[in-house]
Amino acid sequence: MALRMPDSDELVRQWADRLDKEWLTEKGFFFRVRDGDYDVELGDAICKLLEDIKLPDDGPVDRRLERRLVSGLYFISTYLEWQNAIVERKGGDIRKYMALTTRMRHAVSRILEYPYEQPRELQSSVD
After folding, report:
1. Is residue 27 part of a domain?
2. pLDDT tens sequence across 23-64
3. How many domains does the chain have?
4. In a domain, 16, yes or no
5. Whole-structure pTM value
6. Structural domain boundaries enclosing 65
7. What is d(CA 114, CA 127) in angstroms, rounded to the nearest whole number?
């Protein structure tokens, strides 16, 4: 029996569910950072998740799911910067935390695409 690959909506739903868990549950990375509890390994796992997200180009994605995913991603960079002082005050390794913040910012920027870059569909026609 062949394994069925998840469709675009399923992938977006999985990513959005995972981000929701990290924002909303007591064991979630972003939830814990709010209290200055910076877990290096969990932070790396979230970075890996973000680095693995690639929104599909091959067809429509349910707009409600896409909006949910984008809202989970959009606030990450600002939120992590707001928590710098709390993490440092609680004894977290601020250098590692700042490196993680930068890594997450780059991952989110790649997913959402920089607004000043040319859209993918125009890149090939200009070259």
Report:
1. yes
2. 999 999 999 999 999 999 999 999 999 998 887 666 666 666
3. 1
4. yes
5. 0.73
6. 8-114
7. 19
